[in-house]
Amino acid sequence: MAIMSTSALFIGENKNAAAVFSLLLERDFGLDCVSAVNSKHAIELLKNEPHAFGLCIFLLPATGVKEFLEVLKTLPRQIPVMLTADDAHLNHCTQFLPYHPLAAKIAYSVDWQIISTAITRLLRVVDRKERKLAPFCALDANLFLRLEESPYDLYLKLSDDKMVLVFRRGTNILSDDTEKYQLKNHPHFYLKAQDYLQALELFLNKIKETLKAETPLHNDKLSSIAMFTHQNMRQMIQRLGLSDTAIEMANSSIRSIHKMLNSNDKIAEHFTKFLTKKNYLSEHCLAIPFVVAGMATTITSFPAVDLEKITFASMFHDIGLEDLEMAQVRHINDQVERNWGSAKLSVIKQHPYASVELIKKLSGVPADSEKIILQHHERPDGSGFPHGVDYKKISPLSAMFIVAEEFVSSVYDSGLDKMNVDAVMDDLALIFHKGNFLMAFKALQTAVGHGPLQLIKGQ
Ligand SMILES: [Fe+2]
Ligand SMILES: [Fe+2]
């Protein structure tokens, strides 16, 4: 029976290489390209949908290649995999990689012709049907931010039979609008089929130029939009049902912090690496400003500068922690003490200080942000750390932060279904019922539609 896989799985951290492969696979093979950041992610994707992929392309060097190949062998059907590397790594990789009957080892940066031939050879093992172009075809909206104005009419897809024109040919691509669409879960622009083929060529040439230079991307190329492409977080923010005002406030706050970071290359690099990983650490850092912005819109005249302080704190509060699991420890109880042991426990307890130490190297840190970071694990009843102070000593902004983080952490894995949010809000009501915490909790209730409808708009 023919396998109807029309997707290729690309595994690699180099975003430019991923973009080039994605465009070429689409153009020459009619394959959609799904990107995985590492082998673990790729294994998850393969296990969830083994029939979705007709080809895997693994960009080396990377860890976990052997494990990845092992998993491939266990799948219900064989998926061809192409291992590629740049010139510098090719020799090295061919030495340590095990023999794999379907693997082709080639250099990605040399010649698409060579790669294309290898893919054609690999694809013979799958029975692929010719794909016909639909009247409208989708391209990643981020690609268009590389252009000043759009050479094509760009559409959003509202439903299977409804397209809406958002940027007319020859008009400026507005990054704010694009970002807004992405946040509303429209990560693609749609083009008419004839434009689509031209657009593929255009982007391909543009990205190839960048790839040739192959210098690491500087931080200023990573706009807040690029960071917002984490699927979990986008869905989370969308499902929170925050007002447009709140989303705009959070975005502008994140942008201004990001701008400030560009003035300090060293920290900016550390921060970018930290934030662009797809995991709990980076995602909750980005989600908190949105929740707080939602809370802020329910408070009369909440100062924008206060949102910036919280946003800054949110970006950096856990930066002193490398370990993903450690970052998920919110409170220390008997079980946590047993599981972690004293050395690691002390790292957890000290991480608010470690984060503050790191940000001390930065100039222009908003006042009060350090305090929020230091207090982000304190609790209203004094059971938190590192100081164990209670609600009387915890600042109003720290209280907002703590409530928002507790909410984000509680719903992070749940996908925000209603039943779960109801239960989370009930739990939080029992914890945050005093002083500044009560105010913050009420703001959260209103922001996520669990409170009385007496919404007072902030500025
Ligand atoms: Fe955190
Ligand atoms: Fe933390």
What does this structure look like?
The protein is of the alpha/beta class and 459 residues long. The protein folds into 3 domains: 7-123, 3-Layer(aba) Sandwich (Rossmann fold); 136-215, no CATH class; 220-447, Hypothetical protein af1432 (Orthogonal Bundle), CATH 1.10.3210.10. It is built from 20 helices and 9 strands. The chain has helices at residues 15-29, 39-48, 65-74, 87-96, 112-123, 141-144, 175-183, 193-213, 224-227, 231-240, 244-261, 265-275, 280-296, 304-316, 324-327, 334-359, 369-375, 396-411, 418-431, 435-447, and strands at 7-11, 32-36, 53-60, 81-85, 104-107, 136-140, 154-159, 162-167, 188-192. The chain has a 5-stranded parallel β-sheet. A two-stranded antiparallel ribbon has the order 6-9. Strands 7-8 form a two-stranded antiparallel ribbon. β3 (53-60), α3 (65-74) and β4 (81-85) form a beta-alpha-beta unit. Residues 127-132, 214-231 and 452-459 have low confidence and may be disordered. It binds fe (ii) ion (2 copies). One fe (ii) ion (FE2) binds at residues 284, 317-318, 327, 405.
